[in-house]
Description:
By secondary structure, the protein is an alpha/beta fold. It has helices spanning 16-33, 54-62, 75-86, 127-136, 161-176, 187-193, 213-228, 231-236, 242-257; strands at residues 44-48, 67-72, 95-99, 112-118, 138-148, 155-157, 197-208, 262-273.
Amino acid sequence: MSAHDDQPTYLHGYTATEQDRLRRQARFLEPAVFRDIDYPGARRLIEVGSGVGAQTEVLLRRFPDLHITCVDLNPSQLEAAQRNLGATPEWQGRYALQQADATALPFADGGFDSAFLCWVLEHVPSPAAVLADTRRVLAPGARIHITEVMNASLFIAPDAPNTMAYWSALNDFQRDQHGDPFVGARLGNLLQAAGFREIAVQARTFHLDNRMPAERSAMFDYWEDLLLSAADQLRADGRVTTDVIEGMRSETRALKADPDAVFFYSFIQAHAIA
């Protein structure tokens, strides 16, 4: 992710297992994340916090006219991105990978005509600084799309006390590491302060109940996978016990099997012009 060399601990880690999960996550959430994302006329996009290239794969497939410059601070993520993207020969020449701090991008002013950030600002100590430097490297009229978490929105039923205790511990850990699990609610203010215009912010909601059992079942599988990706870090930091982790796993599987279960979560998307 994008921070300084003494960056806070990244909640999910950089293991090969986590890198594979990020690609599964991008594919699973693609219909929701990309529903209203478009880059008409754009040719030079900067993806800030590109990680393993999971979202880059989607961008390359959906927008064949784009050349994408992928920026991430972590070398192991960039190595994984090179392996992942390099496996598709027709994408060669359409992307570049750059190790860099997102608050000090090594590019000239106004060099890009579009930008994309997805699940990035929640992890950085200064979202305002990231957006300010992203704005600097965008040409006037460039379009930016940002997708972020709003973790206060989670609701599940029936009650799942271990799952909610785990969720609270996850959010507390992220805040203590100078991230922001609620940054989605601040996107409008952050974009305005960075000098963007024509800012639009929307909540995108997953509200799954017994009207759509297949989608709800798939979401609980995805959610357990997401939560478990932080288990080692949270346990090592003393935030959760093994009993809470196993209780969370049991609850999410029971919720998946319950015909009256409810899953509700909103993430936030912002669109603006430089």
